[in-house]
Amino acid sequence: MAAAKYFAKRVGEITDNKFQIQTFAAGELVPGLQVLDAVSNGTVEMGNTALYYYFRQEPGLHFGTALPFGLNARQMISWLRHGGGEELINGLLKDHNCIGFAAANTGAQMGGWFRKEIKTTEDLKGLKFRVGGFAGQIMSKLGTVPQQLAAGDIYPALEKGTIDAAEWVGPHDDEKLGFVKVAKYYYYPGWWEGCGQAHNIMNMTKWNELPRPISRRSLRRPTTPGYGRCQSTTRSIRRRCCGCSRPARSCVHSRSP
User: Fold this and answer.
1) At residue 185, what are phi and psi to the nearest 5 degrees?
2) Per-residue pLDDT at 225
């Protein structure tokens, strides 16, 4: 939500407030995992989302967010902006009456919060794990039962025991959602997301109705400083992830509620 608000603010600044975007949190207008459908059918003009949520509708959209053991954040934005990635993704989105542009990127993500300690792969068997995208199919090979939930549904599911574990983003976002209160063990790394690339997607009909200078300039330019802002924040937070003296990249630890 913070990234979407920043984007809307930047668009207003660039256009001298001639072009205003009103933001809504996930669930206010449409459920968090139905953004693509809502933008496609015109329920909303624009949405911010992770494209891998829709890989069952279009498997290729997974490339727009992250692949297990795939690109890091710098490699992803380089591919999208300078390696033809944006054109390929938009070729897929066109079939859904949408056009999209890279927004913020979370950087490498954590492995998630677990209600019980994981010592061997045997402990993963039967474990109900909230994990996004194609990674769930990989984890199912180890016996886990993957669940795809929107952000607002994760905490109550963990608290009630409907799920046994959940990955979201990293320390900053996970702490805001309160996962540490209901799951003691926090593991790293999340090999399924070397980065988490978000996209701003817009209904193609509405995009074509925009005056060309506004559509080309103001809806794409704000994502560049936002990307850098997001990455610098992520790096600083991970350095103080748990207060231990080990480098963040090698830190696997537990947190007490």
Assistant:
1) -105, 130
2) 52
Which of 129, 125, 106, 120 lies closest to 183, judged by CA?
A: 129
Burial 184-212 (b: 16+ CB within 10 A, else e): ebbbbbbebbbbbbbbbbbbbebbeeeee
223-239 vs 2-14: helix crossing angle, rounded to 10: 140
Q: Which residues sit opposite 203 in a β-bridge?
A: 98
**pLDDT of 3:** 84
* Helix runs in the chain, H state only: 2-14, 35-40, 73-82, 85-93, 135-140, 151-160, 171-176, 204-209, 212-213, 223-239
Q: Coil, helix or strand for 119?
A: coil
Q: Does position 237 have pLDDT exceeding 50, yes or no?
A: no
d(CA 17, CA 251): 45
pLDDT at position 2: 81
Single out the residue of 1, 6, 5, 12 nearest to residue 225, CA to CA. Answer: 6
121 with 148: CB under 8 angstroms?
no
d(CA 135, CA 252): 20
Lowest mean pLDDT among 51-55, 130-134, 222-226, 253-257: 253-257
Separation of alpha carbons 245 and 243, rounded Å: 7
3-state secondary structure of 222: coil
